[in-house]
Amino acid sequence: MRILFLFFFSVFTFLTQAQVPGFLGKRASVYAGIYLSPTLAQSEGPLPELFNKKYAVGVDYIVGLKSNLSFSYHYHTTPVTDLGFDNAFANHENFRYGLNSHIFSLSFQKYVKKSDYVAPVGTYFSFGLMTAFFTLKDSEENIFPKGTKMARGQVSGVTFGIGKKRVLFRRIIIDAGVEAALMLISPKVDGNTINSDFITASKERVFWSNFLNLKLTAGYIF
Amino acid sequence: MLVPTLAEAQKNVFNNYTPLTSKGQLPPEFAVSATQKYIESKKSISKKEKRSIRKSKTEFYLKNSFSIDELLRSGKVLFNDTVGIYVDQVFQKILKVTDISPSSVKVFIVKTNYSNAFATDQGLIFVTTGLLARLQNEAQLAYVLCHELVHVKEKHVMDVYLHAEETSQKIKKATDEYELEPAILSHAAFSKDKETEADIKGLQLYIKTGYAVNEVVALFDILQFAQHPFDSLPFNRDFFGNGKIAWSNRLFVKTVDRIEYDSEEDESLTHPNTPARKLVVSKIIDSLKVAGFGSDFLISQDQFNFIRQVCRFEYCRNALLQKDYCNAIYAAYTLLHYDPDNLYLKKTIGKALYALSMYAIQGRKKEVVPWYFEVQGNVQQVHAFARNSYAYEVNALAVKYLYDLNKQFPNDREIAAILDETFSALTYYHIDDITLLRSKVLPDSLQSGGQSIYADESYSDMKEQFELATGKFTYNHVYCDENTDIKYRKIRILYAFADYLNDTGFVKMFERHAFKSSQIKSHVDSVLVENSISEDKPEYMNDTRPEGEINTRCYNYYIKRINAEAHDKKAVGEEVRLKYTGLFNNKLNKSTGEKVILLNPLYYSLDLRKKNPLKYVASESARNTFINRLKISADAANLPYELLSENEISITDAELLNRISLLKEWMSEQFSHGEATILPTDYELIKNLSESLGTRYLCLFGNTFSVLKKDRIEEMIFYSIIIPFYSWVITVPYFLIKKIETMHYFIALDLEKGKIVTAGLSTVKSGNNEDISLATLYNFMLKIKLYQEVNR
Q1: Angle, helices B343-361/B552-579, rounded to nearest 10 degrees
Q2: Which of B585, B762, B771 is facing A167, going by the closest CB pair?
Q3: How far apart are CA B742 and CA A49, in angstroms?
Q4: Is the dihedral of CA B52, B55, B59, B61 positive or negative?
Q5: Whole-angstrom distance, CA of residue B258 vs CA of residue A76
Q6: Which chain B residue has its CA at the smallest distance from A21's CA?
Q7: Could you tell me the pLDDT band of residue B640, with boundaries at 50, 70 and 90?
Q8: Any CB–CB contact under 8 A between A108 and chain B?
Q9: Is A188 on the interface with B (CB under 8 A)?
Q10: In angstroms, what separates the C-alpha of A151 from chain B's closest C-alpha?
């Protein structure tokens, strides 16, 4: 709660500037893109994947000479085999799971003060909040019907990032960078059920898939 | 007489003198770009020459083409002007006796007080108005042109440049002063030889023209003293002291220093000294036995006199622009001797007195008045007067002079504006007590024309003494405590206006300004007290307080006023900014600003790793791109503009070049004043221009792209060797990737206030990409709009 308060306080102290040029007067942009994270947790499939993929859409709004707010929605899906714990359901060779996450992120981007970049062009640092609603489903027909939800949960955290934005043809905005998230905050889980093991394992997977991401997005500024 | 005589017509021209301007179609030299000039010039380099010579020549033509272009577009070079047309007529007379094609050489006039003429190898000859103001006849002008023509024909400029390149190589290799000095002196000697060659060959050419041969020798007499004023009338100390006031002996020198020529030869100079040059040509004239032949004028004596007079009037104007106020006063004084009712000359003196009083109030008089013992000749009296007088003395004199002028010419806007400023300064800084004026505090002895009391220059008692002679009196300022000093100062100022006590117009003007000043003072005091603002000098002012030269109280008033004005401005600014604050507030972006003038946007591409960092051709070609980006940003910001750029001049647009020239001169003058607010020399012209353009905002924009030197090369090599493989992740990109920087800047000036009103600078470690440039320029445009909003 305190962190949330501090975050919004910092954001709003930056919102009282008289001069918000934007890019030739345009302050809002919508974008879509891809986030790639190295597979720190094991992934599966016929070929081992080096990256997990997240697809993102979002809205940016320039709020100051060197700052903007960004709100985005990410969708992440990944097959899971090794849940990291040992039971008959988890490690049976017939069991296949799918982890889907709907992630919402609100971040504040601040352009490098030392260099005279004006938002939205240039190098920026970002910090924000992220929350992920995940669902772990059974992918195969075995003991449980296909699509059975084995675990559902939510995990939240803070994000930090660095990136660079450029505007091409005076309308297309390209953003490339790196984002790190620490997704550590979640409701307490009752530890005595099989379900709790699935949730814990899923949280771990969500944590690692958001821990470090390379991002590349393209948008339209208006 | 219904038709005015030539003399009357010319008198009218000088009475309402306007500065020289260019007319008609642009000559090709102005219309063609510097890059094209460079490409054309390069064609003359022969491929048979040595590689090093070809390289030096290419470099020469590159620098030369762009330097000439810069000079031509500086606004100081005229074409199709009154003076230039006459000088060209003389030049054509000379060309007739040569085999040089008239289309291959041209002569232009340069507006500057320096006495000089110079030529380029590309066939351009420049003669300054300063030189023309000093010549005595057409024959002397003809010899100057012959001398320069020889430089063009013999390609001396290139020869001297190549020799300088060779010398610089020797200088680089020199290990001590025993090797260094001969290298420097050898270049000076080489250059002197070229000048002597031009003198001799110029004389040979000159003799064929039919002009008087003796005038060549006379010309060198003029050149010997060319740094002095063009006339040498004794300065009458009573010039300012009409009416009841005469100025103290303290303010003048008893005897002026004679003008003397330093004939000692300086071996390191590139020109031989003038007596040596005179001796050479005299010997040739004697040997050829042609002395006494020829005539002084082949075109027209009247025309020459007219042109010289024009150049002398230009001299007065240029002296004001260069803040050379004492020389401006003296030049106008000498010209008034022959034309006592000339309005332009009287205004010149009024403007100079006004500027001197403003500088004196701010404690900066020594910036504009050199020590008078550094000056020789009769002009020394003016310097002594300016240097020795106190701020209130100059201010009172300026008010008196301008008031008289205003009475004579009540419809003149310039005089009225300057009088207003000077009067405000008098009542604000020195005397605001109108009751003293009303009570007419003059000693009875003065009013009744009583006995004389002679003042003793060395008198040091705490009293004043008066000398009454022919109804005038003088006083001596004596040093005393501040309160006594204030009382005496006020009285002395009143005595300066003793003749005006019965002039209701003057009294009303005094009362009006005194009232306004007292209101300003109350506001200043209340602002400083309420906001606990320090009365210290603001940080941006350098320490300009001269010891003992000004009254401390006057200077302190000045500082207090600046501090209060700065505070007021900040308060209004904050109020306006609140209007545009808010998350979704786009009002500033969408509002329409006031029109601005975009003057000559500049673009430079630099490679700081090289000996000659400026990339001329790349800079010129990228300038148009920068101008386009400016237009896009201004349109997006809803900021109406008028672009005055030399890049966009059409061949028939001399008027545009004149406007650019006027604005450049104004800008240069205002920058030289620094923080002081002083009305410009060309107040009326600037006001007219501002009204015709419909704006008072002038903006200068610039953009540079630089490739920087890498400063940690040794360090990176060290790490690469000591920590191989791992350090290469950092060191290899460091060596491969260029270190670049892009800078954008702008300065906005107010034509009415005459000062910089807002500015911006942006530096990014990135290339000069369109998006970065547009975003930055748009931000600058918003800054201008915000300022306009604050000051609406």
Answers
A1: 90
A2: B771
A3: 42
A4: positive
A5: 94
A6: B779
A7: very high
A8: no
A9: no
A10: 41
3-class SS string, B548-606: CCCCHHHHHHHHHHHHHHHHHHHHHHHHHHHHCCCCCCCHHHHCCCCCEEEECCEEEEE
**Distance, in angstroms, between B584 CA and closest chain A CA?**
8
Residues in chain A with CB shorter than 8 Å from the CB of B578 are: 18
DSSP letters, B367-426, are HHS--GGG--STHHHHHHHHHHS-HHHHHHHHHHHHHHHHHH-TT-HHHHHHHHHHHHHI
Q: Give the Cβ contact number of residue B180 at 10 Å.
A: 14
Mutate to test the interface with A, among B771, B773, B785 (most CBs of A within 10 A): B771
Mean pLDDT of B508-535: 82
Lowest mean pLDDT among A141-145, B321-325, B694-698, B730-734: A141-145
**Interchain proximity B778–A23, CB inside 8 Å:** yes
What SS3 state is found at B536?
A: coil
Segment B98-133, tens digit of pLDDT? 999 999 999 999 999 999 999 998 899 999 999 999
State the smallest CA–CA distance between residue B701 and chain A in angstroms.
16
- Out of A18, A118, A170, whose CB is closest to B580? A18
Question: Which distant-in-sequence residues (6+ apart) come within 8 Å of B621 by Cβ?
Answer: B35
Q: For residue B788, list chain A residues with Cβ-Cβ distance below 8 A.
A: none
Q: Which residues of A touch B761 (CB under 8 A)?
A: 116
For residue B457, is pLDDT > 80? no
Measured in angstroms, the CA of A12 and the nearest CA of chain B are apart by: 9
Interchain contact, A19 vs B782, CB within 8 Å: yes
CA distance A150 to A198: 7
Question: Count of A–B CB contacts within 8 Å?
Answer: 82
Q: In whole angstroms, give the CA distance from residue B585 to residue A17.
A: 10
- Beta-strand runs (E) in B111-247: 117-119, 124-128
- Number of other residues whose CB lies within 10 A of the CB of residue B83: 20
Pairwise CB contact (< 8 Å): B763 & A116: yes
Provide mean pLDDT across the span B321-333: 95
Report the candidate in B559, B517, B550 with the shortest Cα–Cα distance to residue B421: B517
pLDDT at B468: 32
Q: Which residues of B36-58 are buried (b: 16+ CB within 10 A; e: fewer)?
A: ebbeebeeebeeeeeeeeeebbe
Q: Of B585, B589, B775, which is closest to A121 when you measure between CB atoms?
A: B775
DSSP secondary structure letters along B25-54: SPPHHHHS-HHHHHHHHHTTS-TTS-HHHH
Distance of CA B383 to the CA centre of its chain: 19
CA B199/CA B282 separation, integer angstroms:
11
* B452: confidence class by pLDDT, cuts 50, 70, 90: very low
B interface test, pick of A19, A63, A65 with most B CB neighbours within 10 Å: A19
B266 has a pLDDT exceeding 70: no
Q: Tell me the two tokens of residue B493.
A: 């100022």
CB-based contact, B761 to chain A, within 8 Å: yes
CA closest to A12 among chain B residues: B583
In one-letter notation, the amino acid at residue B498 is A
Q: Which two tokens stand for residue B160?
A: 């001297």
pLDDT tens per residue, range B36-60: 889 988 888 888 888 888 988 898 8
pTM: 0.85
**Residue B649 host element (H or E):** none
CB contact under 8 A, B775 and A24: yes
Per-residue tens of pLDDT for chain A, all 222 residues: 666 666 666 555 555 666 788 899 999 999 999 998 877 555 554 555 677 888 999 999 998 888 999 999 999 887 766 665 555 555 556 566 778 889 999 999 999 877 788 889 999 999 999 999 988 877 666 656 666 667 788 899 999 999 999 999 999 999 999 999 998 877 766 555 556 777 777 888 888 888 889 999 999 999
